[in-house]
Amino acid sequence: MSQTLRLTGKATVTPASGGTKQTIVLPNLSLTIGDNEEGAVRNIGTSEETFAINTDIGDAGYLILTNETASGSSGSCEVGIATGSYFVQLAPQEWAIVPIAEGTTTLYLQSDTATQTIRIHLFERS
């Protein structure tokens, strides 16, 4: 059995100098995902840490990351699928939705200057 993950949204850019506001409408995305998913909140320090993906997830599919560190805090957190090789960097209150390569079994996370609180939610590929 499978589930559907639906994503909708828009991005609005408002220039500080009084220019024209721009709205970018993102296409609706409907993704078929597997039955298994995993979520966790981790406090990530300045030494690289690993997050082993639950073996119930046959193939990692889509990853939602949120840096829940308080707005105005210093630092950021990097996330990758290989040690020392990061594909996303999140400052406090930033988030990302990214597809993960099939066969991924571990995430690697590291903060640059201060501990960051990161919410991880991973969906199985269908």
Concise account of the structure shown:
By secondary structure, this protein is mainly beta. Helix content is 0%, strand content 63%. The relative contact order is 0.30.
Write the layout of secondary structure elements.
Blueprint: E1 3-13, E2 22-44, E3 49-52, E4 60-67, E5 77-82, E6 85-90, E7 95-99, E8 106-111, E9 116-125
Description:
This protein is mainly beta and 126 residues long. It has one domain (36-125): Satellite virus coat domain (Jelly Rolls, Sandwich). Helices cover 0% and strands 63% of the residues. It is built from no helices and 9 strands. The strands form 2 sheets. It has a 5-stranded antiparallel β-sheet, with no helix packed on it.
The total strand number stands at 9
- What is the class in the CATH system? Mainly Beta
Oligomer: single chain
Model regions low in confidence, pLDDT < 50 over at least 5 residues: none
Give helix and strand order, one letter per element, not per position: EEEEEEEEE
- How many domains comprise the coordinates? 1
Task: Give the proportion of residues in helices.
Answer: under 10%
Average residue pLDDT: 92
CATH architecture: Sandwich
The CATH topology label is: Jelly Rolls
* Estimated structural class: mainly beta
Task: Give the strand content.
Answer: over 45%
Shape: flat
